[in-house]
Write a structure and sequence with these properties.
CATH architecture: 4-Layer Sandwich
Enzyme class: hydrolase
Number of domains: 1
Family: Belongs to the metallo-beta-lactamase superfamily. Class-B beta-lactamase family.
Organism: Peredibacter starrii
Number of helices: 9
Shape: globular
Order of helices and strands: HHEEEEHEHHEHHEEEEEHEH
Strand order of the largest sheet: 1-2-3-4-5-6-7
Radius of gyration: 20 Å
Subcellular location: Periplasm
Number of strands: 12
Helix content: 25-40%
Distance between the termini: 83 Å
CATH topology: Metallo-beta-lactamase, Chain A
Strand content: 15-25%
EC number: 3.5.2.6
CATH superfamily: Ribonuclease Z/Hydroxyacylglutathione hydrolase-like
Structural class: alpha/beta
Largest sheet: 7 strands, mixed
Length: 266
Amino acid sequence: MKNIYYLCILISFMSCASKPKWDSTKFDQEFAVKEIAPDTYVVTDKTFFDSNILVAKMKDGTVFIASSPFETVGTRELIGWIKAKLEPKKIVAVNTHFHADGTGGNEAFKEAGIETWASTLTSKLQQENAESARKFEATNFADKPELLKRLNERKMVQADYVFYEKAGKTFTFGEEKVQLIYPGPAHTKDNMVAYFPERKVLYGTCMIRPGDSLGNIADADIRAWPKSVEKIQALDASIIIPGHGPVGGPELLSKTSELAKSAKKK
């Protein structure tokens, strides 16, 4: 019996020793993490436009990701951080809109066996705009060859599962829910928001603006934007996460609505 006992210990030790240790150096260089509520994190991609990614560990041990880093290399680093720090039972990722900060991580998600979701409209727009979007993004990195290479090497990979945007989707993780809501066109035609009713947290994607401008409006519907914001103002959210910039409260919704109304008049 003693021999069997020692053999089990040896096998356990060898298993731990063979498991590669995640090195946080690269992640820390490229990302900033802030816990905004228990088990709820904003991960900011410092390398590509300071984009905010929502990462939440649900009560059943699943980790839920809304949006993604811009490209595959950064997303691999994010996955490494999630596995090392949050030890997920499972990971689910949602493409919140068709731009790269909504879908650019799909190649890495697929490699890691992560379940990915998108609306039918996001999936369609991603496919139609993949190459033109890449060229547009590249203009910002002409003087940064390493980052440009990463953008150019990113493969266009679509989500595993789709849902009709107007119907939205509700995920249930144990007893906790996450609601994906389509408020209407704003930053893009397809922008979805993710709402955590129990945590009163709303991930508003790039349709919510903390600054003094609407940001990139190349694919925006400015006329519809204020009305789309109004639809999510009815939610009982106390923490609002924009697609870029600092986290705030319901005042971010009011501010965004006013920005869009002002832009409509021009």
